[in-house]
Amino acid sequence: MYYLSKIALWLVIIGGLNWGLVGAFDFNLVSLIFGNMSILARIVYILVGLSAIWLIYEQFVPDTVVIEKR
Fold first, then answer.
1. pLDDT computed for residue 64 by the predictor
2. How far apart are CA 38 and CA 58, in angstroms?
3. CB neighbours of 18 closer than 8 A, spacing ≥ 6?
4. What are the C-alpha distances in Å from 57 to residues 30, 41, 53, 70?
5. Which domain holds residue 7?
6. Would 66 be classed as within a structural domain?
7. Which of 10, 13, 39, 55 is the most core-located residue (most Cβ within 10 A)?
């Protein structure tokens, strides 16, 4: 789960930076790289959205696994 959280965090950061570019300069980096709403661009957007959902879940659902070291 650690690596999933790190990947999700990076995808959300990339998505946030892309939205910042869209808002400030009307420049969509994902569309530039993958094409305007191509299947690859749609996959990137879906992965960013799923990453955001995962990070929200991770914040509000407590970790129930506790490992004690002796």
1. 63
2. 30
3. 28, 29, 30
4. 26, 24, 6, 31
5. 2-60
6. no
7. 55
3-state helix, strand, coil in the chain (%, to 5): 75, 0, 25
Q: Does residue 70 lie within any of the structural domains?
A: no
| Count: domains in the chain | 1
* pLDDT bucket at 70, cuts 50 / 70 / 90: low
Count CB atoms within 10 A of the CB of residue 33: 12
* pTM exceeding 0.85: no
């009307």: which residue's tokens?
Answer: 26
Q: Is residue 31 part of a domain?
A: yes
Structure tokens at 14: 């990339």
Q: What is the DSSP letter of 37?
A: T
Q: Which two tokens stand for residue 42?
A: 């749609």
